[in-house]
Specification:
It contains no helices and eleven strands. Strand 7 and strand 8 form a beta hairpin. The chain is 0% helix and 54% strand. Strands 2, 4, 5, 6, 9, 10 and 11 form a seven-stranded mixed β-sheet that branches. 28% of the residues are buried. By secondary structure, the chain is mostly beta strands.
């Protein structure tokens, strides 16, 4: 059974930084895409950043230049370095892994940015 465990969320002030971590365990196909998602109130879940096993990364426009996604496959862990956080970044951040067979989700970690 695949499990994803997130950590690193918290409460910070605008302009500060956080680093989220997501560790995967279980039978995951070696070729996969990992990503971070969030779901603003009243909206659909949206992609924040994704990274493939080849290292190709994508970012939504609102976080480009502030967030960096990277992964350590030896530890099956993905990270999201979030700098210059803004109040609009406040949300629950969910870890996802898609291995071209199935989609898996973590339970989420709360990020709160105060102005």
């Amino acid at each position: 059974q695949v499990q994803l465990v997130e950590s690193g969320g918290g409460v910070v002030q605008a302009g500060e930084s956080l680093r989220l971590s997501c560790t995967a365990s279980g039978p995951i196909f070696s070729r996969n895409v990992m990503g971070w998602y969030r779901q603003p109130p009243g909206k659909q879940r949206e992609s924040v950043a994704t990274i493939s096993t080849t290292g190709r990364a994508t970012y939504r426009d609102s976080v480009k230049g502030r967030f960096t996604i990277y992964r350590d496959d030896a530890k099956t862990t993905m990270y999201l370095q979030m700098n210059n956080l803004k109040p609009e970044d406040t949300d629950i951040y969910y870890c996802n892994i898609y291995d071209y067979r199935s989609d898996y989700w973590g339970k989420g970690t709360q990020v709160t940015v105060s102005s």
